[in-house]
Amino acid sequence: MVAAQDALLAQMRRGTLQYCVLSLLADEERYGFDLVRGLAEMDGMVTSEGTIYPLLSRLRRDGLVESTWQESPSGPPRRYYRLTDSGRSALEAFRLEWRRFRDAVDNFVERKASK
Amino acid sequence: MSTSADKLVEDYLDRLEGELADFPSARRRELVQEISEHIAEARAGFETESEADVRNLLERMGDPADIAAEAREVPALIRADAPAGERRRSSALDVAALILLLVGGVVFPVIGWLIGVVLLWISDSWSTNEKLVGTFVIPGGLALPVYLSLAGAYTESCGGSPGQPLTCVGEPSGAMRSLGVVIVLALFVLPLVTTAFLARRRSRALALA
Q: Could you report the predicted ipTM of this complex, rounded to two decimals?
């Protein structure tokens, strides 16, 4: 049961993580390290920080984010990511769906818990 | 920077590289480089770095196998609106590479095959090892066995005119001939096997890309 729950949590995290990444990029462009730090601040969102990089590369190839190289004050140039128009609309669509889903589940789960 | 910490990072990156062995080389390089820069930046942020700090950092990065697994992941959700143009273009070039490698040398001796080799090496769909196989098994593709059998047919022809004994120029002995047949057959089969192999690896690489 616990294992099944862990697997479910991992699935939910995996399914939503990309939208958390898109959200972090909604207002400003960020580079990989900075993005990972932003995600890691939220407890339980990322278990393996390294997996963010393949995720970013996929979002890039799917055209949801784009990247530009910029000089860094120290070290090698950094790849900065920002949302594309289709990334922005994917995020918007997810926001609506997510609210509806969250409210629906809350309706059952939270009501029982508060009784 | 302690050397044992450097060694830990080096081992970690080696393991990651190994886990990504079946990826196209450009993607593997890019991912390993990004992870390595992340680690470098995190380490630069330590005031005094201990080995435990680095162990901790690598633990947070996650198992290289997990990173590779994530890179293999193909989410059906957002796959649909992926830009198809680029993929189509490289797909046409890949097919051209395979065809030219196989029969390019037959139609345009040497040049046709060479163009195939160039297309093979600029493509992102194959790893370096696969490209080596594509280049050296067999150089020229079907050109070599085709021209060998043409030459064989020619030397085997016997000439004779009425009143003269039949003369056969360069006729090989029976054993030599069957050995020759086996070699030419192998030369025919190997390029075909290589083409099938590259085509299969390519569809695998596409699933990963």
A: 0.85
